[in-house]
Amino acid sequence: MTDHRFLSSEEHRDLRINTGASAELGDGVMAAMTVPHEFRQVQAHYPIVFRRDAETGSYVALALFGFTEGENLFVNDGKWDTRYQPLAHSIQPFLIGRPSQESGESQVHVDMDHPRISTDGEGMRVFDDDGSMTPYLENIVNKLGMLHDSYQASGAFYEAMKRYDLIEPFTLEVPLKDGSKHSLVGFATIHEEKLQALTGDELADLHKDGHLMPVFMVLASMSHFTDLIARKNARIDIG
Prior knowledge:
Elements: E1 4-6, E2 16-17, E3 31-34, H1 39-42, E4 48-52, E5 59-64, E6 75-76, E7 79-80, H2 87-90, E8 94-97, E9 107-111, E10 124-125, H3 135-163, E11 167-175, E12 181-190, H4 192-196, H5 200-208, H6 212-221, H7 224-238
Antiparallel strand pairs: 1-9, 2-10, 3-5, 4-5, 6-7, 8-9, 11-12
Protein name: Peptide transport system permease protein sapC
Pfam families: SapC
InterPro entries: SapC
């Protein structure tokens, strides 16, 4: 269930957010959406893959946290074991909302049913006593703006990938030290052979529009599958 409301100092003066890390707080997810604008930061920690929407045929990029639904191998002892979280995950329980009038500006909304909403008086304050935004909320608002703008701009990236047929499905077999195997299916990545076959003019076209660097970041991120397997094996050792 969700309960999205327009965030206001009048209604949410005493609102606090639990910023810990746990499955119970919403971190028990296998992946989170990411956008080309942040691929450089994301690829430093996570594999970046694409998933195709069966109804629309469009792609979305995901930062992988694990191999199975509900598995996040980056949360340990109540903390994220990385220096960066994808924007779409780090802004929870906040989101961009639309006013009743389509021509109006975007608004900050909050999901009051999200598990990060504090009910015990603990957590990060959203507003000060005088109703001003706290530094925590200011940071969230900045992230929301970046995510909104980057998502709107990502359409051009996927159009370029379609134009040059650069996204291909892949399957990954993941053997683990206990003898079990996971098959990662339903995802896609950059088609390296087709990328290498592009002409100089085609590469220049991608570079001119700012799409070439995100492509390289996706390819670079694939090395983190080795790290992800190591994290999975470490969990097996712990039991």
